[in-house]
């Protein structure tokens, strides 16, 4: 376990995020639940996820919906979700060889 448990893998939290995404079709719709004043201390990741879900998921355009026409951001296949997850977890930064050895190598291969 790391000194800050926020950086540990939380499968329950990720599953809840997926459940909230799936439930957006049945939700009551968007609401403006953002506070005008931020609290002095945080609510924690789980509570923040629950409070933000109606607005973030309810007010976002669903470009992956079957009735959506591609605009500037076309729907994405599942493999891009997996890669976005890996990228978010590994946080590869191409600015320095020490921070992304494989990503820099892959980029060079593609460019070459």
Query: How much helicity do the residues have?
Result: 40-55%
Give the mean pLDDT: 81
Label the overall shape: extended
What's the SSE pattern? HHHH
Query: What count of structural domains?
Result: 2
Radius of gyration, taken over Cα atoms and rounded to an integer in Å: 18 Å
| Count of DSSP-assigned helices | 4
Distance between termini?
A: 40 Å
Structural class: mainly alpha
Count of DSSP strands:
0
Strand proportion, as a percent range, falls in under 5%
Biggest sheet record: none
- Which stretches of 5+ consecutive residues score pLDDT under 50? none
Structure in words:
The chain is mainly α and 112 residues long. The protein has two domains: 1-75, no CATH class; 76-112, no CATH class. 46% of the residues lie in helices and 0% in strands. The protein is built from four helices and no strands. It has helices at residues 11-23, 45-58, 78-90, 101-111. Helix 1 packs parallel to helix 2 (45-58). The chain is extended. The model has no long low-confidence stretch (mean pLDDT 81).
Features:
about 110 residues; mainly alpha; 2 domains; extended
